[in-house]
Amino acid sequence: MPTPNLGLPQLAADQAQKHVTLNEALYDLDALVQLAILDRSLSAPPGSPAEGARYIVAASPTGAWAGHANHIAAWLDGAWRFFIPGIGWLAWVVDEAALLAWNGSAWVDALSAVSAIQNLALLGIRTTADATNRLAVKSDGVLLSHDDVTPGTGHMRVTLNKSAAAKDAGFTFQDAFGTRALFGLLADDDFTIKVSPDGSTFYLALSIDKDTGHVGLAGATADANNALIVKGTAFLFDRETDDVRFTFNKAAAGDDVALTFQTNYSARALFGLLGDDDFTVKVSPDGSNYFTGFVVDRSTGRLKLPLAPKFSAYTNFDNYIAANTWTKVQFNNADSNDQNAFNGSNNNFTAPFAGTYAFGFSLRFKANATVPTKVIATFYKNGAELGRGRAVSGAPVDDVTTYNLAILTPLAANDVIDVRVNFATSDGYIEADQSHFWGHYVP
Predict the structure, then answer these.
(1) What are the domain boundaries of the chain?
(2) Is the peptide bond preceding residue 151 cis, with omega within 30 degrees of 0?
(3) Which pLDDT tens digit goes with each residue over 80-90?
(4) Could you report the per-residue pLDDT of 155-200, keeping only the tens digit for each?
(5) Which DSSP string corresponds to 129-153?
(6) Distances from the Cα of 59 to the Cαs of 28, 54, 83, 246, in angstroms?
(7) Is residue 205 classed exposed, middle or buried when 0-12, 13-18 and 19+ CB atoms within 10 A define those classes?
(8) 310-442: which CATH architecture?
(9) Which of 8-12, 111-115, 345-349, 415-419 has the lowest mean pLDDT?
């Protein structure tokens, strides 16, 4: 009766020629113990096999191997012996340097047939693992794929877990074992990418705040207030094909969408859609108080300078002008007076800041009794004639003769401009409602 696992013949009581049975058992043991297979690709016996040579018979065998597919064929004592493998038998295939296992229907990779390999102290693949690198691999590539065998969920995730926020959970990229880049959770729980030229000095390339998802680039650390922070001295945005556009979108007209320019993190200028849908530029001396430089009306494209002084004034009564005396025309009402630079009580304009200004007047003559022989009208600055031209005529015609003059002149801050006339030989009037004085800053 053969043994239950290897099928070795046993000696029977009072058996004749016991050495024959014993030798058969020894041949079987020699064939199966420390099983090393020369080849598993042959379907026919090789010519001149060496004594003790063993093979796994391939599919569709012929000749002396016919009917023995997947069996173990051993050349022993000048004949082929065949052994039917049992589940779990292992065989080392010499020409493939592979360890196979019989699973009951096929020879498979022995390690893949193991359902679980647990608690290995070290694992080195084509290299030596150590206490620091418990898993070490030398390869041109490493593939981690989703489970399409079981099958699994279709997901593929790699998890790196650290013990505390101050520790690292990251990937290191090296050149000749000198670190050149890191990414992961590095010394905190924000996601970070760092680079290094030498493995000692590291530069922050990317920071993503864990609480908000906000991003910091080029050495900037992300924070909770700014969705994107970038540090640098120059920035290039190049076109992909032809055009380059930046889009800034806000939720509603009453919100802001703008660029802010700061000095030491204190705003000094803003431009964009500020509180409405007109394009506006504002400036600030301190980051708290803002002045509107100009506005472009969204409906017309018209440029508005809300802080640029401009006015239009008139007199609502007949101004009496004595003969032979320079007299200020009393423009006591304003149709418009941006920035309140025109003073109706003093009948003059005061420059709020230095710059170039344009002024003009239109004066209608009104007679008293005798018509003057000559009328002169001009601008005065700070109580003296400006000297930028005069409007002059001989004897005027009552309610007809009109004097017009326009000038462009530089002014210092707080310079005062008014209009004065001189009637030669006879008095008269500057007519109410028909006489005007206007001016504005020229940017």
Answers:
(1) 34-113, 168-230, 256-304, 310-442
(2) yes
(3) 989 889 888 89
(4) 999 999 999 999 999 999 999 999 999 999 999 999 999 999 999 9
(5) --SS-SEEE--S-------TTTT--
(6) 23, 16, 15, 67
(7) middle
(8) Sandwich (2.60)
(9) 8-12
